[in-house]
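HTH-type transcriptional activator RhaR
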Amino acid sequence: MKMPHRKVERYFGKFFSVMVVTIFLTISILSIILYMNFEKIALRQSYDQTMDSLAQTTQEASVMAVTAATFAKQIYSDQNVANLLNFPDVSALDIAVSIRQLTNYRETSPFIESIYVYNAEARTFYVTSDMNVPSVFSEAEFYDQELRNMLQNVNVYNTLMPIPRKLRIDGLVGNIAERERDTYTFLLYDTLSKKSRKNAVVVNIKETHLHKHIDGSLTNDPTNTFLIDENGTLVTNSWKTPMLSSLKGTTYIDRILRDPEGSGYFAAEVDHVKSLITYSRSDYLGWRYIRIVPYSVISQNIDSMRTKTMIVAGGILLAGLVLSSLLSRRIFSGLNHKLSRLGKLETEQRESVQAMRMDYLRSLLKGYTQMNARHASDRFERYSIPLDPLQPVRVLLIMVDDHLLFVNRYKAEDRKLLIYGVLNIVQELFAAAGIPATAADIGDEQAAVLLQMSGDAEGDRERCKESASWIQTAVSEYLKLSVTVSSSLSGPSIEAVHALYQQAVEASYSWVFSGAGSHIEAEEVEQNKTKRYEYPLHKEKQMIDELMLGRIADVRQLFREIIVDTAAYTYISYQFAVSHLTFALQNALRIIRSHSLTNEDWEFINLQLYMPHSRTETMEQFIERCMSLFDQLENQMNERKKSRQDELPGRIKKILDERYADPNLSLDMLAEELGMSATYIGRVFKQHTLQTILGYIQKVRMSRVRELLLQTDAPVGEIAERAGFSNSPYFFKAFKKYNGVTPAEYRRTGRGRTDDDGEEAGIAAD
């Protein structure tokens, strides 16, 4: 009895050791990971807090700028101040009223230091200030010399944008302590005026008002917050550096300036102290907000968190060891492991049986396995298939509509789950109705149902219709999918299931006629197969002729008639008609292009054959797509029609002038070469030349004959042949009719007579 106990103790010791080591390693690794992330977390928190503070500062600066701009605009449009701006001579009373109004504006806002109104024509400044200074200054006597220089070249400065500067006030009456003030100046002037000197309203804002919102800390505070412009110049005071000092050239400022549109944070040395520098992107004033926090301030929190983490980790380790020692003997048992293993085996067996069941049904439907009833009976019993192999059976094929959209919308794993959902719905529907049936996934996002029949043909057909309706309604409601169901004929037993499956597949191709969400019966397909389909070649030829003539409306009608007629037959007939039409239309368009006068590229219509596995386009959708393509073709042909008609007669004349000697030259040969109908080219030629093509050929030939008769001594028969006349009697008759004399008389008379201008006088009349 002791030996087993020792074995258990030994086994328990190993288990306890592994558990303790695992817990210790887990806590140690977690502690290391947490410690490594403390600094990153602290930096991020500091950055987030700083950015929140900088956002508030941005709002304060915006309020300051908007307020100053608003005051400047109000002053500029104030009727009481208008006299100071617009008239060189203003009475003392008007000046007093205006200065009082300016003072009211200044005292309205606590951060406005002073307001100037500058009259360029009088070269006079009118001033209201919180200092004890006069209200009127001439330009030469004005104490703010920098502003005086600014107004002499005022176009350099943007209107109503803050200009940081230092206002020198030493020596003013009543001012003893201050020598200069940090100020933001806002200028408002007429930007449309072409004058070199312009009237202006100037509002000066105290820098201290903005600074207390930026960094209200004392000078001994380790943090430092300030603003810089795009050139790295301070636009606020820093407790270390005065306003308008250039920080460009310092390492951390140059790094910030290299990222003009970004915001962020980084660690760097500032005045030999490792610090966290946080910066924002430029606001609409072009200013950037920067805060510098020494690393020691942040590391205090990190060290505290590290210490607390180590204490907590040690406590968890100690508590875990104690609890493991006290409770592990009681909970230690191999029973749970065995039960877990048994459950896994059961699940694996069930899944294995389900997989084998699906494989067997798939093989049965596709004819990959034995078909005798005895063998099927054994397999049905093994896989719990609720069918009698000796009873009549039908096959229902379930296909997801718009297969391409289905594939694009869902991943492969999701599509498999949806088909599995369809199978479950089918099984539950037929089980609830008490109808023996089984379903299988046959791939390509399709499912097949083996349905037990009663042997009553009409009753079985109605049951199939009803079953298809159940399936479509339930799948649409629960899975939000549209499916088409095709049903086979009724077979005498399970041995006919492969043939029945092929019937259902063949019937499914008729989806192209019925459309999505339909029920297709093999009975109707089999009836259509008995009818012989004859492709209407005469309609195709007529359609191509109409296309050559540019009559697209007739092309549309004939195309639709050819395609729609196939609906009374089978899918093969439809596919045959589509392929014939595709070839004929593409060939006709290539001929049109090859004879295009401009030799431009035509946009050929792309008539794609319907593929059964894609299930993306019905016959009506296909026709509609082709009609749209015909519309495009019609627009192209109409655009080229006028140009072609204008150039066609010249092209015909060129061909006839070059090939008049060909005895076979005719209207039909010319039409074939041009790729157009003889009727069309004859009509266009006569409209432009007022003569027929045959008449023009006769004219060219007769002109050549007359030329050869007068310039050569060749026999008349040879001349006629060289001019393209192969029939001598016809030539002599035509020549006399055309010229009024015989060829011999024309030669004799033409050589013997010369008109007054020295030209040959022939008897011919053109």
